[in-house]
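Hello forum,

I keep getting stuck at the same step: I have a sequence, I want structure tokens, and every attempt I make locally crashes halfway through. Rather than fight my setup again tonight, could one of you with a working pipeline run this one for me? It's a single chain of 155 residues.
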Amino acid sequence: MEKRHFRQTLGKFVTGITVVTTEHDGDISGMTANAFMSVSLVPPLILVSVDQQASMHEKIMKAGRFAVSILSKEQKEVSMHFAKQKRLDSVDGLFGRLAGQPILKDALANLVCRLHEAHPAGDHTLFIGEVLELTSRNGEPLTYYQGKYGYLEDN
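Reply #2:
Ran it on my machine without issues. Output:
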């Protein structure tokens, strides 16, 4: 099976967009991810999938904590920045703090996690985080479908 065909087929599934952040030795790092899901209500667990070659992989392992910010439709440029598709002029003012962890301001939701488990799976690692703190607000999500950003339309 071709990697490209596999990726195109999975692109038929509409996802939301998140930015995963962590801080290690005073350095804040972030990466865009759409491989995110809830795992358990009790205890509250979530999962993010991170490429083992990504710099974020080692940073999460070292920090032992990470945050997930679920992006609003107004945050397309932020997503593109952390996906290394386009650079913002400045990231000043993008970050806030929740339970001591860097989060993205103006996100629809923020979840701060302690690394609960890490499971290698192919070329990625599935990081399961125990949610320690969370916030949410009303708004419309940023979506991703067939390699393109979008948002929900009213019915």
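DSSP finds three helices and twelve strands in the chain. If your local run keeps crashing, start a new thread with the error log.
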